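The instructor's notes for this session suggest beginning with a concrete chain rather than abstract definitions. Hand out the sequence below and ask the class to guess, before any prediction is shown, which regions might be ordered.
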Amino acid sequence: QGPNLIRIGEQAISFHVAGEKKYPGWDKFRVQLNGVIEALFSNLTNISVNKIGLRYINAIVQDRHFIKDIHDLEFEVSVGGKQLTGPVNLNFNVSEGAAHIVTTRLAHSSFVQGTLPAKTSAVIDVEVSTTNEFLAKNSSDVMSWIEKAHTL
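After discussion, reveal the predicted structure:
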């Protein structure tokens, strides 16, 4: 039940919750996600997973988050010694151990396409993905990676 979307391709499966205020929280989403992964491993034979991504995108709205401008997120970007004060789009990666890469994207709403809630001041997009060395041959290895990704 809910706004879940599952896409299955020849070598890919994705599971999404989309829509404003539709995310049920990690405890419920984890159970749903685990069900998808268990179904994958119980219905297919001889499979392995070498790429996983866990992504969370949040539109920041002043009335709900008390953040009126992207610069209220307490980061600084300087060019030529001058701090940028207008709309910015910042993307960076941080490696977290041998199996996780965290990509963070902070964007003023003017850089974002698609439908956003009214009065969106910024969009925060955090994606954790596997490194090239990752390989899982069972559902518990996949869920273990996902649990750490969620923590990161």
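Then share the key points. Residues 69 and 121 are 5 Å apart (CA to CA). The helical segments are 26-43, 62-65, 139-151.
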